[in-house]
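Anyone up for a design puzzle?
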């Protein structure tokens, strides 16, 4: 093998190593961005302002009165669904952080959502898709989870809504919703 051939092989190997290093760096960068976005969304969801909104939403959904109050919660999950669809967020991370609430608000609000979708077909489609994705993850990870069939247990649904309602009036002791 000639000296020029060895140089050419070395150049190809170096180029391949550089491409691989860039790929790894890009993957790491995307993972960091995803984690940062997830943390920011979790912080936002736990903020006093959003907790107050969630409380109003839960009250409306539980009473089936002024369910429009729940639309901010639906919009929040629509945004997360959009991020998942666009691959800016990993659905497993979303499941870990938000499954309980996605499941709760979808289950409690699906009749209102369906009525509104008759007027605006694509309204909350990413929320619906997100709900289906995280529900499937829950089924795979915990097939005996009672939350999979939440709609079949109105008392459990009411309990979860009550926990959300309490967000606006936190007691001195930490509620179970705050521990989730």
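Challenge accepted. My sequence:
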């Amino acid at each position: 093998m000639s000296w020029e051939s060895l140089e050419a092989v070395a150049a190809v190997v170096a180029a391949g190593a550089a491409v691989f290093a860039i790929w790894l760096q890009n993957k790491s960068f995307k993972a960091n961005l995803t984690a940062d976005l997830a943390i920011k969304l979790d912080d936002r969801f736990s903020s006093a302002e959003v907790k107050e909104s969630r409380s109003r939403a839960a009250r409306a959904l539980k009473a089936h009165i002024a369910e429009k109050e729940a639309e901010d919660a639906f919009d929040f999950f629509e945004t997360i669904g959009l991020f998942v669809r666009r691959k800016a967020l990993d659905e497993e991370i979303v499941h870990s952080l938000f499954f309980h609430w996605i499941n709760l608000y979808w289950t409690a609000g699906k009749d209102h959502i369906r009525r509104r979708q008759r007027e605006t077909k694509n309204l909350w489609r990413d929320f619906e898709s997100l709900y289906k994705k995280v529900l499937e993850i829950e089924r795979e990870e915990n097939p005996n989870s009672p939350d999979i069939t939440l709609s079949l247990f109105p008392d459990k649904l009411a309990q979860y809504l009550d926990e959300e309602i309490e967000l606006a009036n936190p007691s001195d002791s930490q509620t179970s919703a705050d521990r989730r």
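A detail worth pointing out: The mean pLDDT is 89.
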